[in-house]
């Protein structure tokens, strides 16, 4: 009786995983190509306009792409918004459980319940594995933190300014 339901669920999961893998086969080379294209464009603009201006041009290009993405995303949400307003008009009273953080606001009540059930079920099983992985990679994590600390420190102009003379 439940065999067909499990087979359909497994087929759906397999299909989703397959789409994710095929999507990553396209997205990863595209991201690398975008990186190299940006580097080449930056070098070309640097030769033409100078370092500061070229970096400002590249930043402007990416900022305009981000604004374009926001406009497209809000338009897609705007099309789905009337349906959400009808749902809220039918249910004006919200309980304390339904008044969640903005990060969870995009999930429906059923999705939130499934997410919480998955986290409470998988949390005790996954937490020791995560902690074990963090403990094994502790030297690497400390190195990354130290490198980030060194890279974010302000640069010193002269060595004489940074060292106090000994008396």
Descriptive keywords:
single chain, 167 residues, mainly alpha, 5 helices
Account of the protein in words:
The structure is a single chain. With 167 residues, the protein is mostly helical. Helix content is 80%, strand content 0%. It is built from five helices and no strands. The protein has helices at residues 3-49, 51-90, 109-136, 138-152, 159-162. Helix 1 (3-49) packs antiparallel against helix 2 (51-90). It is extended and about 65 Å long. The mean pLDDT is 76.
What's a concise summary of this model?
80% of the residues lie in helices and 0% in strands. It has helices at residues 3-49, 51-90, 109-136, 138-152, 159-162. Helix 1 (3-49) packs antiparallel against helix 2 (51-90).
Low-confidence stretches: none
Question: Tell me, what's the shape?
Answer: extended
Average pLDDT rating: 76
The quaternary state of the protein chains shown equals single chain
The whole-angstrom Rg is: 26 Å
Please specify the SSE layout and strand pairing.
Blueprint: H1 3-49, H2 51-90, H3 109-136, H4 138-152, H5 159-162
Helix pairs in contact: 1-2
